[in-house]
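Researcher: Structure for this, please.
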Amino acid sequence: MSFDPGRPGPVVTAAVYDDGRTPLALAAGLAAALLADGLWAMLVFLTGYEIGYVAWGVGLLVGVAMSRVTSRRTQQLAYAAAALAIIGLLAGKIFIFSSSTGRVADELVENQEVLRGAVAWQMYNDGQLEPATMAAVEAVEAAGDTLSDALWADMLRQSNARLAQMSAEEKRSVALFVAGGALHEMDIVDGVRAQLSVFDLLWLLLAVGTAYRMMAPQKKPATPSREQEPALPV
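Model: Predicted structure, token format:
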């Protein structure tokens, strides 16, 4: 509180209220982000679908957790809430990518052309192709050349016969092997990037914006000065 000699009364100096709970609020925001991305990934795993608007819930949960712990609203807390929302969203995407082998395998089982090719190469690796075909493929591999159309067609012919004898469990086992190998070859950055679409970016912006606004300082209307106050009628 300060005294302005030009005014008849004391003037209250505005200050940002600090309840001392900022570290606890940050911890709550981080816990909420990790909990939200775990729930998001579990929903994807159970349903097989990545519902975009669930990502908005990550930012909402971060903002709710932090706002319930502390009554303080500052620009720094708003930036922290936005950053925690981004961490939660990225962690969710990484978890979804890491656990997507089963979903990719299910798609491969339905794609007969890809499955035929996978079985053909598995038969080659296991030495189950016909001797002449094995020798021809080994010669191509040793020379570093590309398989000819005729040789590839011969491999697919044999894989067709093998597929006709395979059970559903055996087909899924092959699909899991192929899916695991494909995801292993793809690093996490590429895996997350492959999941992103325009709608994902829109939901991400909404989630981050929600967390930010919930912890940002509220703008109060300016109080008119004495000179600006309207004159009272006489």
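Researcher: Any notable elements?
Model: Confidence is low (pLDDT under 50) at residues 1-5, 8-15. Residues 8 and 226 are 11 Å apart (CA to CA).
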